Amino acid sequence: MAVSGKRAMGRGARARKARGSARKTLASEPLDWPQALYGALRSADVRQMAFVPDAGHSKLIELFTADPDVISNVLTTEEEGIAIAAGAWLGGMRSVLLMQSSGVGNCINMLSLATISRFPLLMLVTMRGEWAEFNPWQVPMGRATEPALNAIGVRTFRAETPQDLLDMASSAATLAYEADQQVAVLISQRMLGRKKW
Amino acid sequence: MVTAMTNSRGLDRREAVAALLKDRGDMLVITGLGSPGYDVHAASDDDSTFYLWGAMGAAALIGLGLAQARPDRNVVVVTGDGEQLMGLGGLATIAVAKPKNLVIIVIDNGHFGETGMQRSHTGLGLDIAKVAQACGIEARVLRRLDEIEAVRDTLRRRSKGPRLYVVKVRAENVPRSLPPRDAVHLKNRFRSQLGLPVT
């Protein structure tokens, strides 16, 4: 597909800015991980994003939806995003899917589309039900998230720190888009912090 | 209470799908699992068709992802009433995404044909076209071959937003025309005809 010089330049400039902000972060100041993660995904040429919102993803969702070079889709249920990402890949576009751990349960049969077709799939999953959790209803699916993904054939990485998350997301993007793998990066609830009630 | 409706009337599904896809040109086609895939395969197999053999409820949404990735091409999804019923929420997602190059064709026999012809929700009175309209999708029901031919002439035009047509067909099992089942093969041939690399 033809990409105008202006669009390409805009993307590159944003990516450089994002990479720059990741580099200059000092150990003494907290890493602005949503901004750095957004930059990493845009550097990997992700141009489509689909989501069912989670508080832990809110900044990343804002960054993507504000980007005129990214198509963002709000979903009624998470498995829709597996299908949309497959369609995007058929047409040559890279897609990322954001959800909370409860949404992984909604995806299981739909993941057979990605695994049997070897469609690249990158899921970023914010965990619930595992650390300082207030809502007991989040616990069963939180417990089942990683085994369920592994059982259907999705590789998982578990990020405990913002730096983990950046490294894993970047690695997962290569595994997905270059090696046709189905990968979920699980973002630990401890890293995301307590939900305020 | 829902009223049971018989479906002895209606179009011949093979005739209807063949009429829709006649002279399909550079349209990109996604099919739902089961009979709609066989219908499309019987009409003519093509590298620009991606058939599903599972992932029930996915067809229209794969169409959305593809339509967004390829705004320069027209995407037609051919699926069944049962498959679309499993993805009703997807109609809401497609409606708000507003692709101008996506048409969903629901081949509606009112039954789950693959599993013993149990009556589906549409066979029990639900109107998928009205559901789609409520979501904000331009939609209507087609019952005659001349209506299908009129729609065919519009399939390759851009529209204001997504469209959905319900094609009422007879509930009958016609001889199967089986597409390839290897999804990687289907994916690679689809991407190849678009000039995209395969891994």
Description:
The complex is a heterodimer of chains A (197) and B (199). Chain A has helices spanning 5-23, 33-43, 58-65, 79-90, 101-107, 111-117, 139-152, 162-179, 189-192; strands spanning 46-51, 71-74, 94-100, 121-126, 155-159, 182-187. Chain A is an alpha/beta fold. A six-stranded parallel sheet of chain A has the order 2-1-3-4-6-5, sandwiched between helices. In chain A, helix 1 packs across helix 2 (33-43), helix 2 (33-43) packs across helix 3 and helix 5 (101-107) crosses helix 7 (139-152). Chain B is built from eight helices and eight strands, in the order αβαβαβααβββαβαβα. Chain B is globular. At the A-B interface, strand 2, helix 4 and helix 6 of A face helix 3, helix 5 and helix 8 of B.
How helix-rich are the residues of chain A, as a percent range?
40-55%
Using the 3D structure, state the CATH architecture of the domain at 26-139 and 186-194 in chain B. Answer: 3-Layer(aba) Sandwich
Largest interface: A-B, 34 and 38 residues
Structural class of chain A: alpha/beta
Short description:
The complex is a heterodimer of chains A (197) and B (199). With 197 residues, chain A is of the alpha/beta class.
Task: Compile the SSE list and pairings.
The complex is a heterodimer of chains A (197) and B (199).
Chain A: H1 5-23, H2 33-43, E1 46-51, H3 58-65, E2 71-74, H4 79-90, E3 94-100, H5 101-107, H6 111-117, E4 121-126, H7 139-152, E5 155-159, H8 162-179, E6 182-187, H9 189-192
Parallel strand pairs in A: 1-2, 1-3, 3-4, 4-6, 5-6
Chain B: H1 13-21, E1 28-31, H2 35-43, E2 49-51, H3 59-69, E3 75-80, H4 81-86, H5 88-97, E4 102-108, E5 111-112, E6 118-119, H6 128-135, E7 138-142, H7 145-152, E8 163-168, H8 183-193
Parallel strand pairs in B: 1-2, 1-3, 3-4, 4-8, 7-8
Antiparallel strand pairs in B: 5-6
